[in-house]
Amino acid sequence: HCFACGELNETGLHLKLQLASGRCQVELTLSDRFEGWEGLIHGGILCTILDEVMAWALVERDAWGVTARMSVDFRRPVLVGQAIRAEGWIVESKRRIQRTAGRIVDTHTGLELAAAEATYVVATEARKRELKERYGLAAGESR
């Protein structure tokens, strides 16, 4: 039921995440149901997408975690109907603390629209097992 990646959440984003080598990305076009000001995607939705790709970059490395801190710089507006790609990657790994970065770019021009940094606290081994079971992932497998 996750708002960002869940398939069961009727009102969610239904992100189709792609994982590889400590990175996560997704390409999408957002409709006017995620609009803030007229014609512009709401900044909170963009934050959600960035948080999701950064968090799943950790999952790719079996470092499931929760967001402790996140900062976002909005460089340019994201328009309703604009094709975008969100990317997240790991910057630094220290035991249970993981630092990530992410960005949203215009799919056609490559122009950076938003950039983010975040800190995550990695879940305990017991919690990771629960999460893998919930998301249907076997040990060492990625989404």
Shape descriptor reads globular
**What structural class is derived from the secondary structure elements?**
alpha+beta
Count the DSSP helices.
Answer: 2
If strands are numbered along the chain, what order do they take across the biggest sheet?
Answer: 1-2-4-5-6-3
Helix % is: 10-25%
Average pLDDT rating: 89
Low-pLDDT runs: 139-143
Radius of gyration: 15 Å
H/E element sequence: EEHEEEEH
N- to C-terminal distance: 16 Å
Strand content: 35-45%
Give the oligomeric state: single chain
How many E-type strands? Answer: 6
Written description of the protein model:
- Residues 139-143 have low confidence and may be disordered.
- The protein has a 6-stranded antiparallel sheet, with helices on one face.
- 20% of the residues lie in helices and 37% in strands.
- The relative contact order is 0.19.
- The chain has 143 residues and is of the alpha+beta class.
Task: Produce a short descriptive summary.
It contains 2 helices and 6 strands. By secondary structure, the protein is α+β, with helices and mostly antiparallel strands.
